[in-house]
Amino acid sequence: MARVDFRGVLTASAMVAASLLASTIVAPAAHAAGKHWGPIYAKSGHTAIGSADGDFANNGGVYATVGANWRDLRNDGMPTFVRVEFFFLVEGKWESAGSSESARTHTHTNGPLSRRLRHEATAARAAIHVCVDRNALPDFCSRDAIVSFNY
């Protein structure tokens, strides 16, 4: 009869658990309660060079918050960033509330971008795109991910 080495099984299980925990720490979800968006990709030709995903949420009844995870897929000296344009629905029309940009990175990072909710509005919308900063040249940017919520 074959013998089972339980130490090997436990070691493998522990390695899988540690791997799952590490991936959770390295790439956390932006906001668990929000509406998911992405992934979206900035491309050079047909090659993805930057990506982003995340969520859009009513943050405590005070802010419309985009939680974003963005990555530089090439690490070629041109940093990746997220740009969000915010809108609020006031009397049946979407009004612009300006835009915000994330920090630029050469790896992977995450963070929030927010606007204070408007008391006269009934909904918030975000147009989100990921871009690769090309200095004096036009940036490579993705198509917009558009998400909204009512409040």
Topology:
Layout lengths: L5 H21 L8 E10 L2 E13 L3 E10 L7 E11 L2 E9 L6 E9 L6 E10 L7 E2 L3 E6 L1
Antiparallel strand pairs: 1-2, 2-3, 3-6, 4-5, 4-7, 7-8, 7-9
% residues in beta strands: over 45%
End-to-end separation: 65 Å
- DSSP helix fraction: 10-25%
Count of alpha and pi helical runs: 1
What overall form do the CA principal axes indicate? elongated
Give the quaternary arrangement of the chains: single chain
Rg over C-alpha atoms, rounded to the nearest angstrom: 20 Å
| Low-pLDDT windows of residues | 1-32
Structural class: mainly beta
H and E string:
HEEEEEEEEE
Overall pLDDT level: 84
Number of strands: 9
Q: What labels would you give this structure?
A:
4-stranded antiparallel β-sheet, mainly beta, 151 residues, disordered N terminus, 53% strand
Would you write up a description of this structure?
The protein contains 1 helix and 9 strands, in the order H-E-E-E-E-E-E-E-E-E. It is mainly β and 151 residues long. Helix content is 14%, strand content 53%. The longest helix is centred in the N-terminal third of the chain and has 21 residues, at 6-26. The strands form 2 sheets. Strands 4, 5, 7, 8 and 9 form a 5-stranded antiparallel beta sheet that branches. A 4-stranded antiparallel beta sheet has the order 1-2-3-6, with no helix packed on it. Mean pLDDT is 84; it is low at 1-32.
Quick structural gist:
With 151 residues, the protein is mainly beta. The chain is built from one helix and nine strands.
